[in-house]
Design brief:
The structure holds two protein chains of two kinds. By secondary structure, chain A is mostly helical. In chain A, 76% of the residues lie in helices and 1% in strands. Helix content of chain B is 78%, strand content 0%. In chain B, helix 3 runs antiparallel to helix 4 and helix 4 packs antiparallel against helix 5.
C-alpha cells in the first residue's frame, strides 16, 4: 500500500503539468468562492470541460483545486466586505467582519485561512483512513442494499435542501424520470424517445446538471436589471497583509474547537446534500454553545471564525468519502467529479479503490496538496479578487453562458447536448421560481440509472420484494430514508412536544434493529449501545416532563 | 424486469405527490389565492431571462451556419447589448469583450484541447 501511496504522490507532486493545473484550479476556485452569486459548484462545473483532454488524475486534481480553493475564497469576501461569497462562509461573517472592522483584518484573514487549512488537513486524514474501510463495507452490499442506499440519498437530499418536502420529492422524482429517457440498460428498449434518434442515448447527465444548476443560476443572476448592471461588489475591500504566525498560534490554542468543527464538517459532508452551507452554521452554533465567552460571539470572537472555516473545508473531505467509497455523490461538486470519472470510463463504487488504487490515492494526495496551494495563493488571489469584483454581473453571465455551450459541446461533440443543457436550464429556472429545490432533481438524474439497474438486478435474482426489508443493510437505509423524510417535521415541531421528544430516541432505536441482524460482534455491541442511548433519551424526557408537570 | 416497470413506479409516485400538492394548495387558502392571482405577477421580472432564452435559441439554431466562433461572438455581443444597454462606447466595449473572451475560449478548445468545434458553413464557404 505504501508503494501505491508513494506512486500516487509522485504522480501529483513530481508532475509539473498536474501541479500547474492544480495551481490554476485553486486560484479559479478561490475567485469563484469569493464572488457573491457564484458558488463552488459553479466553479467546478465550469472547470469540467477543460478536464476532457486531461488524464483522469489531472482532471480530478484540477477540480479538487477548485473545490478546496472555493471554500477559502468565500472567507475573503465575507471578511473584507461583510458579504459571504458562498453559502459555506455565512457564519464566518458573524465574527470575521466585526474583527476586520475592529482594525485586525490581517489577523481575521489569517484565522480564516489557517482554520480552513487545518480543517482540510484533518478531513484529509479521515478521508484516507475511512474511505477504504467504508468501501470494504460497501462490498457487503447487494443490489437490494444499493437500491435502498440510493433511496436514502434522495430522501435526505429532499429533507435537507429546505423548503416544501412534497416539492422536494417531486423534484427528485422528476430527476429520476429524466434519467429513464432513452434505451434502458437492461433490455435495450427505447423509452420516451418519440421517434427521435438523439433521445435513444438518453440525456447525458453533465449537460442536464450544467443546465439545471449553472444555466438557471446565471439567469437568476441577471434577472434584476439594476443588480445585473452594477459591479459584482460595491465595496470590494482593500489589500491586507495576512498575519500568519499569530493566527496559527491562536488556532492551535483552540484545538478542541478546531477538531470538533472539523468532525462536524466531515460528518455533514458524508451525508448526501448536506454541504458546507450547513456545516459552517452547525459548527459555529456548537462553538458558541461550548464557549466560555458566549457574549463575545458576533463581536469578533476568534472561535467564531475558527469553527465555520474549519468545518466548511472539512466538508469537502467528507463528501469525497462517499464518492470514493460507494460511488454515491455527496453533493453537486462530487456529482460533477463522478461525471468526470465516467468520461474516462471509470465507474466509482465499492471496488473503485481496489481497482484503481493509483487514481484513488492520487485523489487523496491532490486533496492534501490543494490545501497548500490555497494558503500560498491567498495573497495573490486577493489582488485578482479586487479587480474581478469591478466587473458587472451581466458581462460575466453572458460570457459564461456562451462558455457553458462550448463546454457542453466538447463533452460528446454533439449540438444536441447544448439543446439538452438549454432545455434543463429553462426547467431549472422556472422550478426555482416556483420554489422547487434543484438538488434532489440533480441527484435524481445522477442516480436514476444506478437505481434502476440495482432494482433490476434485485428483482432478477429474486421476485421476493420483502428482501428489501429483510436484508439488514437495505432495512437500515430504508429506515434512514424514513427518518430523513420525517426530519423536517421534527425541525418544525415545538420544543418539548411529544413528537420532538420521541423523534430522536425512536430513530436511534429503529436504526439499531437491522444492526442486530448483521453477523458481527462489533455491530451487535453498537446496536446495544444505540438501544441504551434511545432508552436514556426517553428516560431524560420523562424526568423532564415529570418535573415540569409538578 | 420490464422496461416500463421503473418509469411506471416513478410516474405513479409523481402522480401521488402532485395530488398531495394539489390538496395542500387547496387546503392552504392564502397560498391558493396568491397562486391564483396571475394578474399580480410581475412579468417584467422575467424580461432578462426571456432575452437569454431568445438569444440562446437564436445561437443554437444558427450554430450550424455561423459556427461556434462567429456564433459565440454574436451571441455574447447580442446578450451584452440587450442586458447592458446600447451606446457607442458600451457597444465598442461589448464587442471587444465578446471577441476576446470567445476568441480565447475557442483557441483553448481548438488548439489546446484539440476539440473540433462547429466551424460553420459561412466560414467554410468563405
Amino acid at each position: 500500500m505504501i508503494d501505491i501511496i508513494l506512486q500516487a504522490f509522485a504522480s501529483i507532486v513530481f508532475d509539473p503539468v498536474t501541479l500547474g493545473l492544480m495551481l490554476v484550479g485553486t486560484l479559479a476556485g478561490i475567485l469563484a468562492g469569493a464572488i457573491p452569486g457564484f458558488t463552488i459548484a459553479m466553479g467546478v462545473i465550469l472547470t469540467l470541460p477543460f478536464t476532457f483532454g486531461m488524464t483522469a488524475i489531472q482532471g480530478l486534481a484540477t477540480m479538487l483545486g477548485v473545490f478546496v480553493g472555493g471554500f477559502s475564497g468565500g472567507l475573503m469576501s465575507c471578511m473584507l466586505t461583510g458579504i459571504p461569497g458562498t453559502p459555506s462562509s455565512v457564519a464566518t461573517t458573524f465574527d470575521g467582519f466585526p474583527l476586520v472592522r475592529s482594525g485586525k483584518p490581517g489577523l481575521a484573514l489569517g484565522l480564516g485561512l489557517w482554520s480552513s487549512f487545518f480543517g482540510g488537513m484533518i478531513s484529509a486524514v479521515i478521508l484516507v483512513a475511512l474511505a477504504p474501510q467504508l468501501a470494504f463495507l460497501g462490498l457487503e452490499f447487494g443490489p437490494w442494499d444499493y437500491f435502498s442506499l440510493i433511496i436514502f440519498a434522495l430522501t435526505i437530499t429532499v429533507s435537507l435542501s429546505g423548503g416544501n418536502i412534497v416539492k422536494g420529492l417531486i423534484a427528485g422524482l422528476l430527476g429520476l424520470f429524466a434519467a429513464t429517457v432513452g434505451e434502458d440498460e437492461i433490455n435495450g428498449v427505447a423509452r420516451f424517445t418519440f421517434g427521435f434518434d438523439e433521445f435513444k442515448q438518453g440525456f447525458a447527465f453533465l449537460p442536464v446538471l450544467i443546465g439545471l444548476f449553472a444555466f438557471s443560476q446565471l439567469l437568476t443572476d441577471v434577472e434584476d436589471d439594476k443588480r445585473a448592471k452594477s459591479p459584482l461588489m460595491e465595496k470590494s475591500g482593500t489589500l491586507v497583509r495576512v498575519e500568519h504566525r499569530q493566527a496559527i498560534a491562536i488556532i492551535l490554542k483552540r484545538w478542541v474547537n478546531l477538531f470538533r468543527s472539523s468532525f462536524i464538517g466531515i460528518f455533514t459532508g458524508i451525508l448526501p446534500a448536506a454541504g458546507g452551507s450547513i456545516s459552517n452554521i452547525l459548527a459555529y452554533d456548537q462553538a458558541k454553545k461550548a464557549s466560555k465567552n458566549r457574549s463575545n460571539f458576533g463581536k469578533g470572537e476568534y472561535d467564531g471564525i475558527v469553527a465555520p472555516e474549519a468545518a466548511n473545508n472539512a466538508t469537502a473531505g467528507g463528501a469525497l468519502i462517499m464518492m470514493m467509497a460507494l460511488g454515491i455523490p455527496g453533493d453537486i461538486v462530487t456529482a460533477v467529479m463522478l461525471g468526470a470519472l465516467m468520461i474516462h470510463n471509470i465507474i466509482p463504487g465499492p471496488t473503485f479503490i481496489q481497482d484503481e488504487p493509483l487514481l484513488a490515492y492520487g485523489v487523496f494526495i491532490a486533496f492534501f496538496v490543494a490545501h497548500f496551494f490555497m494558503v500560498g495563493l491567498q495573497a495573490f488571489s486577493l489582488r485578482i479578487f479586487l479587480l474581478v469584483t469591478k466587473i458587472p454581473m451581466y458581462v460575466l453571465a453572458s460570457v459564461i453562458l456562451a462558455y457553458c455551450a462550448i463546454g457542453v459541446f466538447a463533452l460528446h461533440n454533439v449540438v444536441f447536448d447544448i439543446w439538452v443543457m438549454f432545455f434543463f436550464g429553462v426547467i431549472g429556472y422556472f422550478m426555482k421560481k416556483l420554489g422547487f429545490p434543484l438538488a434532489p432533481m440533480i441527484l435524481g438524474v445522477v442516480l436514476g440509472k444506478l437505481a434502476e439497474l440495482n432494482l433490476a438486478r434485485a428483482t432478477g435474482i429474486s421476485d421476493d420484494l420483502l428482501l428489501f426489508f429483510l436484508r439488514p443493510w437495505s432495512l437500515f437505509f430504508l429506515i434512514m430514508a424514513v427518518i430523513s423524510v420525517i426530519f423536517p417535521f421534527y425541525q418544525d415541531a415545538e420544543k418539548g412536544s411529544k413528537f420532538s421528544n420521541i423523534y430522536v430516541p425512536a430513530s436511534v432505536f429503529a436504526l439499531a434493529i437491522p444492526l442486530f441482524f448483521m453477523e458481527s460482534i462489533t455491530r451487535l455491541i453498537i446496536a446495544l449501545i444505540m438501544v441504551g442511548i434511545s432508552f436514556y433519551f426517553v428516560y431524560k424526557s420523562f424526568i423532564k416532563n415529570k418535573f415540569l408537570t409538578n | 424486469m420490464k422496461a416500463s416497470y421503473w418509469p411506471r413506479i416513478i410516474l405513479w409516485l409523481l402522480s401521488i405527490m402532485s395530488l398531495v400538492m394539489l390538496v395542500k394548495s387547496f387546503a392552504n387558502k392564502v397560498d391558493s389565492i396568491k397562486a391564483g392571482s396571475l394578474s399580480k405577477i410581475n412579468y417584467m421580472q422575467f424580461k432578462n431571462a426571456l432575452i437569454c432564452f431568445g438569444m440562446f435559441i437564436f445561437f443554437l439554431t444558427f450554430l450550424e451556419y455561423l459556427g461556434m466562433l462567429l456564433g459565440g461572438i454574436l451571441f455574447v455581443f447580442g446578450l451584452l447589448t440587450f442586458l447592458g444597454g446600447f451606446s457607442i462606447k458600451k457597444s465598442t466595449n461589448h464587442l471587444i469583450i465578446s471577441v476576446i473572451t470567445i476568441g480565447v475560449m475557442w483557441s483553448i478548445f481548438t488548439f489546446g484541447l484539440k476539440v473540433i468545434l462547429p466551424e460553420g458553413e459561412l466560414i467554410r464557404i468563405w
